[in-house]
Design a protein that fits this description.
Shape: elongated
CATH architecture of the largest domain: Beta Barrel
Helix content: 10-25%
CATH topology of the largest domain: Thrombin, subunit H
Number of strands: 10
Low-confidence stretches: 1-8
Strand content: 25-35%
Structural class: alpha+beta
Radius of gyration: 28 Å
CATH class of the largest domain: Mainly Beta
Largest sheet: 6 strands, antiparallel, barrel
Strand order of the largest sheet: 1-2-5-4-3-6
Oligomer: single chain
Distance between the termini: 57 Å
Mean pLDDT: 79
Length: 208
């Protein structure tokens, strides 16, 4: 792939947004704590924060949690070597976005969407955030279960008598870990064997 001399777009502050600046409070490997003035708006979770090391290398941070008034804990997308305490940090007030589209095929990018193959910027007009809010999924237990509960006959006497299973439900076999816990393994194998044998016979009957 040919190299390109075109400038690579970096994450920046959206137009018309007031700059919100904080300072690096602590650095522990890829985890960076940033303190913002308490009278200003704190970064939201997953917001992108920009800072620089003392030698001018850009560091991209993503807000992970709020520790207190004006104090946020971030995760760095690149190395934090030479990142000093008190370094100014700018809140972009938007999440980290990466390009998406056919122009990304065959390209190599980092977690922040910056190209690593020295082939210039991506030919992708669309950008999507790397983090999306989790959508709530409504689950109705009444629709999953059967109208009339039906017992699952395992052939194991103490299970069918003491702990009967219902078809379509979930059942757990509890037990500790260790060498002497072989009884749970035998129970699971004995439980699977009738089901496997029934499925095998049914498949054989369909072929005939």
């Amino acid at each position: 792939m040919e190299k390109s001399d075109k400038p690579i777009p970096e994450p920046s502050l959206p137009p018309g947004v007031v700059e919100n600046t904080g300072r690096v409070a602590a650095v522990q490997g890829p985890v960076v704590d940033v303190r913002f003035p308490e009278d200003e708006e704190a970064p939201a979770v997953y917001d992108c924060i920009l800072t620089k090391t003392f030698n001018g290398q850009k560091v991209i941070l993503q807000t992970a949690e709020h520790l207190g008034p004006g104090l946020v804990r971030c995760v760095s997308f690149n190395e934090t070597l030479n990142l000093q305490l008190g370094a100014p940090c700018t809140n972009t007030k938007r999440p980290t976005v990466i390009p998406i589209g056919d122009g990304c095929f065959g390209r190599v990018m980092d977690a922040a969407g910056r190209p690593l193959d020295e082939a210039g910027p991506y030919d992708c007009p669309d950008m999507v955030p790397i983090r999306k809010p989790v959508e709530q999924v409504n689950f109705d237990l009444k629709k999953k279960g059967r109208e009339i509960p039906e017992l699952l006959e395992t052939g194991i006497k103490y299970i069918d008598l003491l702990y009967p299973m219902i078809k379509g439900s979930k059942t757990g076999v509890l037990g500790g870990a260790g060498i002497m816990n072989w009884k749970k393994v035998i129970c699971c194998l004995r439980l699977c064997w009738p089901l496997v044998r029934w499925i095998s016979r049914r498949a054989l009957a369909q072929k005939l």
